[in-house]
Write a structure and sequence with these properties.
Number of helices: 19
Bound molecules: FE2/S2 (inorganic) cluster
Strand order of the largest sheet: 7-8-12-11-10-9-13-14
Mean pLDDT: 94
Distance between the termini: 28 Å
Shape: globular
Oligomer: single chain
Structural class: alpha/beta
Strand content: 5-15%
């Protein structure tokens, strides 16, 4: 058996080994030279600004008990927490920072395996990116979803219902009393958003990839099974260390193919494609948006959960969650995959198709979940969640109204002089990865007030931004290259005629090449306002959406760079 990684710290018979063992003893984790007791890092992303991750506290304790019962030493390693609601300009600015923190903690500390605790949108992908690079045995644990609140006699889903009621409010149909009541209803409990937003999508994909125990990603945050599964994860990570089963064995091309099918079948968050591409990129796997388009064409939407469907995530959980969905998708899935669990993919379920998890022959909608469009506006592609769009707008020609940034959009969107009609195409640029705000979720541009008041609920909207996984509408997102990088989106002007053909995979501006060249000659690259610190590092190194917005220096350049470098263990 391979020696434990931690033995480089603890088995030495010199002053360095003694110092390391003394430090562990002082911290309450006595280790003995030569003892084969694996050290497991419990990497918890909890803080008081992130209610989505607070349920993880009790799961860390449960996992600790599991590790100790299996003969390991559990050491808590808190890492930063990325809370979606309060962190500005967007938690996405810090996803790569968390990924680096987790990876470097693993590199620098004497851990043989890790349990990763995340829940809110960016925490799970960041931890999986780190695990893919560090390649020590790892299990992901998530904290479950919050229970839905009630408003006007109906359950409200986090995000999705807020966007809908915000539209009502803008249209003058929701008074102050109702607005305050909605706030109370949405402050319902702790845990991840209870619709098919980014957090639940990423948990589902982590389980599909094989990085979570089967059946653990879609449970209510107060469900006692979460603690049982966390204890099991603690026991299991000790086994994985003994077997030396590592993320490289799990995060394979086949596993990502399955994840894309599941993403399409869930009608999951558009953000998930960015995160999946980043995780895959850490193992040298290129996950182009076109692969999601192929998966979407193969797999109809089977999960009837908001924002595409009518239920909340609790109904999906009660119907069997991921194992039940995998059973329905079995004819399409690749079986040559492994998981941190003991059972084979989808083998743990005995359920039938239901109202919430449909069969391949009875999907939720005939429209595929996603389409990828290319054209002279988006040479490297753009993504649209077709199943959450208005079918009548998926093939549309309209005149552009261009906003040069988020502030510009907020300042002018309700201006009666804007000249917007229901058929206009709203364009928001300078919100992509390179624009200085970390690639925020600004892509669901609000419908101008006078149109909302007239009953317009959706318009074609184009941007280089992302949008929340809980959002809906005919929004073409992640246009690449982004405007700040000099992509053609930067050259569009108000009045240009835009063609969208989602089914045909096309987004096009009726602007000829000569015009584009003239405009390009006049374009100047915006200067980053970030002169120092993390935002500057982000601006200088972030890749485009199709490459997962990882940093160029974190993606392995070749097979040799896939091998992780251990630190020199000597005097500090
Ligand atoms: Fe944290 Fe939705 S805001 S999961």
């Amino acid at each position: 058996m391979r020696p434990l990684r931690s033995s480089a710290w603890f088995s030495r018979d010199d002053e360095v080994g003694l110092e390391h063992r003394a430090a562990m003893r002082s911290a309450g984790h006595p280790v003995e030279a030569g003892a084969a007791r694996p050290v497991i890092g419990l990497m918890s992303s909890i803080n008081g600004f992130n209610p989505c991750n607070l349920p993880l506290r009790r799961l860390v304790d449960a996992a600790r008990a599991g590790v100790e019962a299996a003969g390991g030493t559990a050491v808590e390693l808190p890492v930063m927490s990325l809370g979606e609601d309060l962190m500005k300009p967007t938690a996405m600015l810090y996803r790569n920072l968390l990924a680096m923190e987790v990876e470097e903690y693993i590199r620098s500390q004497p851990v043989d395996g890790v349990v990763l605790f995340g829940n809110c949108d960016k925490t799970v992908p960041a931890q999986l990116m780190a695990a893919a690079s560090a390649d020590v045995p790892a299990i992901q644990v998530t904290g479950g979803f919050r229970s839905p609140g009630r408003f006007r006699g109906a359950e409200v889903g986090a995000g999705t219902d807020l966007w809908a009621y915000w539209s009502e409010r803008r249209a003058g149909q929701l008074d102050d009393e109702g607005w305050n009541g909605l706030e109370v209803a949405l402050s319902c409990s702790q845990g991840a958003c209870n619709v098919m937003g980014t957090a639940m999508t990423m948990g589902i994909l982590a389980e599909t990839l094989g990085m979570m125990l089967p059946g653990s990603s879609v449970l209510p945050s107060d469900d006692p099974r979460l603690a049982e599964l966390a204890t099991l994860a603690g026991r299991r990570i000790v086994d994985l260390v003994a077997q030396q089963q590592r993320p490289r064995d799990i995060l394979t091309e086949a596993a990502f193919d399955n994840a894309l099918l599941v993403l399409a079948a869930c009608g999951g968050s558009t953000n998930a494609l960015v995160h999946l591409s980043a995780i895959a990129g850490r193992r040298g796997i290129r996950l182009s948006p076109d692969r999601l388009a192929v998966a979407s064409a193969q797999t109809p939407v089977l999960v009837d959960v908001a924002p595409i469907g009518s239920s909340h995530i609790a109904a999906f959980s009660a119907a069997g969650g991921v194992p039940a969905l995998l059973r329905e998708l079995a004819p399409l899935l690749r079986r040559d995959v492994v998981s941190v669990g003991e059972a084979a993919l989808g083998a743990t379920v005995d359920s039938a198709a239901s109202q919430v998890i449909r069969s391949l022959h009875d999907p939720v909608t005939d429209v595929p979940a996603f389409a990828v469009v290319h054209g002279n506006i988006a040479p490297d592609g753009a993504l649209i969640k077709t199943a959450a769009a208005s079918p009548a707008l998926l093939n549309h020609v309209g005149t552009a109204i261009v906003f040069d940034g988020y502030e510009d959009m907020l300042a002018r969107i309700d201006d009666p002089e804007l000249g917007a009609t229901a058929g206009s195409v709203l364009i928001l640029r300078n919100c992509g990865p390179r624009a200085g705000d970390g690639f925020p979720e600004w892509g669901m541009i609000p419908v101008p007030k006078h149109l909302a008041e007239a009953g317009v609920t959706d318009m074609v909207r184009l941007s280089d931004a992302r949008m929340s996984g809980t959002s809906f509408g005919t929004c073409v997102l992640h246009i690449a290259p982004d405007a700040a990088s000099g992509g053609p989106l930067a050259l569009l002007r108000t009045g240009d005629v835009i063609e969208l053909d989602a089914a045909g995979g096309r987004i096009h501006a009726r602007v000829d090449a000569v015009q584009f060249d003239r405009r390009r000659a006049l374009w100047t690259k915006p200067t980053s306002r970030h002169r120092r610190g993390w935002p500057r590092l982000f601006d200088e190194h972030v890749l485009q959406a199709p490459e997962g917005c990882d940093f160029d220096f974190l993606v392995p350049e070749d097979d040799a760079a896939l091998e992780w470098q251990e630190p020199t263990v000597g005097r500090s």
